[in-house]
Amino acid sequence: MSSRVGVAIVGASGYAARELFRILLNHPGVAITAATSRQDEAPRVDALHPSLARRIDLVCEPFDADRIAGKADFALLALPHTASMAAVPPLRERGVKVIDLSADYRLADAQVYADWYGHAHTDARGLDEAVYGLPELFRPRIPGASLIANPGCYSSTSILALAPLIAEDLIERSGIIVDAKSGVSGGGRAPKPSFHFPECNENFSAYGVGRHRHTPEIDQVLTAVAGGKGDPVETIFTPHLVPMDRGILATVYAQPKRTAVEHDLIELYRSFYASSPFVRVVSHLPATKDSSFTNFCDITVRVVRGKILVLACLDNLVKGAAGVAVQNLNLMLGHPEETALL
Ligand SMILES: NC(=O)C1=CN([C@@H]2O[C@H](COP(=O)(O)OP(=O)(O)OC[C@H]3O[C@@H](n4cnc5c(N)ncnc54)[C@H](OP(=O)(O)O)[C@@H]3O)[C@@H](O)[C@H]2O)C=CC1
Ligand SMILES: CC(=O)N[C@@H](CCC(=O)OP(=O)(O)O)C(=O)O
């Protein structure tokens, strides 16, 4: 036990936290030494998440940076945005490395954050130092980071779908259409009217059209993938809510700069992701159930009437949240990226 690294899970009662527990309880190099919740009665983790009964014997405590620093080297924050940026500075001041699952450290520019999230950013230093935790694109930067901004679930799907085309400068950068669908757990465990069963069951609707907060995140990262050369990437990102528990499928439409050949594109994707164990470039059309409860993102490419279509899917709670957080933790700890994730 002593050779294990102590990890705290902050925001323990939520869905992303449940996945963190589920995955990390199988990790040979990690001990979950603390869990926090605002709930009054110091709930046991397995009372919050009965699926974890007999797997974990841990009581939640209120958030206290000193206590966490006394027990853990890493904190994985599964808090809503704005709550994270209040918790991150005191943890980092005490030497705790942080992987933040919220959106608070994903956008490099505080003004862009304020514009899309409607709140001023209060941790300029953290924002400056955070590394965007999408290992497939930024793997070399992750081991040395002290603060990781874990990507959004729609963002990961869309970025992984588009990165090879942008990196190779094969498509026009404006007007890229990302038509994405998510299961309801993407909205978290806290009840909201649109997620109420009679509202979302047997229903299918778009939301956030033209103003979803993952738009600037997708554009920012893909513009970085382009190497800062040329025009910025501008996507038209439209999310939809699908009445299923989990999973995201994005269908991306892009205008090629020259004639596109499907077979060559599939080969490009295979070579681009050859060193990325969690991207499966497939020839069939991916379906959410194929990646459910896994850390895989499945991607394929088609050419239809001269346009490039990329279809990508992943599990929003795993590759879209807790799984990629553990991928990042593995890289920071020097473990194989796949540890506890296969
Ligand atoms: N769901 C998903 O698919 C994905 C989620 N994310 C991000 O991960 C984070 C967690 O998401 P998810 O687990 O779905 O969310 P949940 O709503 O399920 O859980 C968040 C937890 O944070 C705690 N919390 C809520 N509000 C506050 C607050 N104001 N201050 C402190 N703690 C608070 C609550 O725990 P308690 O009441 O016990 O204190 C709650 O259970 C979010 O930032 C989300 O955007 C990222 C990618 C995908
Ligand atoms: C279905 C649903 O509501 N999904 C969430 C996205 C969840 C996620 O990845 O985003 P953050 O980490 O940025 O919150 C939404 O559209 O806001």
Automatic annotation (TrEMBL):
GO CC field: cytoplasm
Biological process according to GO: L-arginine biosynthetic process
Gene that encodes it: argC
Presence of keyword NADP: yes
Catalyzed reaction equations: N-acetyl-L-glutamate 5-semialdehyde + phosphate + NADP(+) = N-acetyl-L-glutamyl 5-phosphate + NADPH + H(+)
Protein name from the UniProt record: N-acetyl-gamma-glutamyl-phosphate reductase
Annotated EC: 1.2.1.38
Matches recorded under InterPro entries: AGPR, AGPR_dimerisation_dom, AGPR_type-1, NAD(P)-bd_dom_sf, Semialdehyde_DH_NAD-bd
Main location: cytoplasm
Single GO term (MF): NADP+ binding
Keyword Metal-binding: no
Domain Semialdehyde dehydrogenase NAD-binding, chain residue ranges per copy: 6-145
Pfam families per the UniProt record, alphabetical: Semialdhyde_dh, Semialdhyde_dhC_1
Native organism: Aquisphaera giovannonii
Family statement drawn from the similarity comment of this UniProt entry: Belongs to the NAGSA dehydrogenase family. Type 1 subfamily.
Location of the active site: C153
